[in-house]
Amino acid sequence: MYAPTARTTASRSRDRMSYDRDAAHAVLDEAYHCVLGFVVDGAPRLLPTLHVRVDDVLYLHGSTGSRPLLAARGDAGLPVCVSVTLLDGLVYARSQFHHSANYRSVVVHGTAHLVTGDDDKRAALTALVEKVGAGRAADSRPPSRRELAETAVLALPLREVSVRSRTGGVGDEPADLELPHWAGVVPLRLTAGAPEPADGVVAPVPPYLPVPGPVA
Amino acid sequence: MYAPTARTTASRSRDRMSYDRDAAHAVLDEAYHCVLGFVVDGAPRLLPTLHVRVDDVLYLHGSTGSRPLLAARGDAGLPVCVSVTLLDGLVYARSQFHHSANYRSVVVHGTAHLVTGDDDKRAALTALVEKVGAGRAADSRPPSRRELAETAVLALPLREVSVRSRTGGVGDEPADLELPHWAGVVPLRLTAGAPEPADGVVAPVPPYLPVPGPVA
């Protein structure tokens, strides 16, 4: 369990909140992309990016020229908020008020630091590559010294973490159950299509690619 | 075209940026959910939520108890940043450095205000319901006075808007093209499953539900 804090405690819908470590890790691991939030001149900035979790650290991919990564270069690091959302379905209630969505989301608060050591950076980049296919790191060319220098990775310790989710069916009021409107859930899943090889590729489709069909 | 500003101008990868109004609208309309970013006590906060675009206004769904919506109650409104991302594929290059993702994302900066008038709020909620099925608003019970009071909607004018996207295939270095590794793209799509009716529903599946298969 992650310890709740003031900013990870919901002001409402507390029944949808959790601080369970395994549940948070599962959402972070299933999602390919996240949103990185930070503050510039007092105003919020958002940057979609790719992430990978290794134990209790979230690594965020970036480039050395991007603003948040430059800001995270200092010893103080960069105060950030990272959000990951998996949309699981659309909920059609008989009442418009109870229309909703099924989802699993994680929000992480903390201070991100730039990964500086080459070995640490290589390890994080390997994890990012392994995330899209377990075994891909050994089946691709590792970064050159120049490529490594051109890539930036942020590390965010997973300490202040909350999970919010909605699952299940329609939550209509009892008085509405006799209304004639259709009610139910349309499930949604991120789904992989057939791999599309680049021109000139002769290697067979590797076994570590996502299989066509629902991801995770 | 939206006019670029300092904070919607990329510090790098400018070739992936656009300010095209139709492209931005298409991404906002296809995505069911977004992330709302705002600042509390100098630190970033993120809140995943549902949105709908009506002309050049983005409406964000919330509840009257939530922090950002309370903050947006004042005349000054709430400085926000909203991000929407559609993940279109995973890009496997021969080099780890050129691994990437295909995506379309929109970032909106601006000041959000709480929608206060009952008629305006009803119109925004109707648009939110219509987004999950054109015709659903007429085929569901409208909000009661109490339900309307319990729902909050933020309005964010679409003025400072950028689109970032990556499409297409692998961008390997010429020197890497002879490497033996598989390279290509695994396309990803959000896909609807078969509708799951709630207990007791006798109405047939309405024609406005997303058809099983890729969404949009």
Automatic annotation (TrEMBL), chains A, B:
Gene3D superfamilies to which the protein is assigned, alphabetical: Electron Transport, Fmn-binding Protein, Chain A
Superkingdom of the source species: Bacteria
Entry-linked InterPro entries: Pyridox_Oxase-rel (IPR024747), Split_barrel_FMN-bd (IPR012349)
Protein name: Nitroimidazol reductase NimA, pyridoxamine 5'-phosphate oxidase superfamily
Organism in which the protein naturally occurs: Micromonospora rifamycinica
